[in-house]
């Protein structure tokens, strides 16, 4: 990706839209639902609230968002290339706060 001077930015790593990643990692059923969750201010990236579905994320970022009755805290370890099966999607993140079963 080119910087302001038009020269390639060699420090720029791989990035992906937040709404697309949430969909690929199978946290939402559609990108529209992911975008709605983000638009409503329910998602934090590295502790900072975001309302932009187009927010770019990179491996190492920590996401916090509600899923059902639980609050999920996950670290992104990879960016997806497609929305594959669940075992493939689980390779994209590490659950930092595994949800406890409802009592």
Report what the structure shows.
The chain is an alpha+beta fold and 103 residues long. The chain contains three helices and seven strands. It has helices at residues 18-24, 31-39, 86-89, and strands at 16-17, 43-45, 48-50, 56-57, 62-67, 70-76, 93-95. The strands form two sheets. The protein has a five-stranded antiparallel beta sheet with strand order 3-2-5-6-7. It has a two-stranded antiparallel sheet with strand order 1-4. Helix 1 (18-24) packs across helix 2. The radius of gyration is 14 Å and the shape is globular. The chain starts with 15 loop residues before the first strand and ends in an 8-residue tail after the last strand.
Write the layout of secondary structure elements.
Elements: E1 16-17, H1 18-24, H2 31-39, E2 43-45, E3 48-50, E4 56-57, E5 62-67, E6 70-76, H3 86-89, E7 93-95
Antiparallel strand pairs: 1-4, 2-3, 2-5, 5-6, 6-7
What are its keywords?
103 residues, alpha+beta, 5-stranded antiparallel β-sheet, two-stranded antiparallel sheet, 3 helices, 7 strands, 19% helix, 25% strand, globular
In short:
19% of the residues lie in helices and 25% in strands. It contains three helices and seven strands; from the N terminus they run βααβββββαβ.
Main β sheet profile: 5 strands, antiparallel
Indicate the radius of gyration in whole angstroms.
Answer: 14 Å
Q: What's the average pLDDT?
A: 87
Distance between the termini: 49 Å
Count of runs of 4 or more consecutive helical residues: 3
Report the structural category.
alpha+beta
Q: What string, H for helix and E for strand, traces the elements in order?
A: EHHEEEEEHE
Q: What sort of overall outline do the alpha carbons produce when their principal axes are compared?
A: globular
- The largest beta-sheet arranges its strands as 3-2-5-6-7
Regions with pLDDT < 50 over 5+ consecutive residues?
Answer: none
Q: Provide the β-strand percentage band.
A: 25-35%
Q: Bin the helical content.
A: 10-25%
Number of strands: 7
């Amino acid at each position: 990706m080119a910087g302001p001077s038009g020269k390639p930015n060699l420090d720029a790593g791989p990035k992906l839209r937040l709404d697309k990643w949430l969909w690929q990692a199978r946290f939402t059923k559609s990108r529209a639902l992911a975008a709605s969750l983000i638009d409503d201010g329910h998602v934090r990236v590295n502790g900072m609230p975001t309302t932009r579905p187009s927010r770019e994320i990179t491996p190492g970022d920590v996401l916090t968002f509600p899923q059902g009755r639980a609050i999920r805290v996950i670290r992104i370890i990879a960016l997806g290339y497609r929305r594959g099966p669940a075992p493939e999607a689980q390779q994209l993140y590490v659950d930092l706060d595994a949800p406890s079963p409802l009592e």
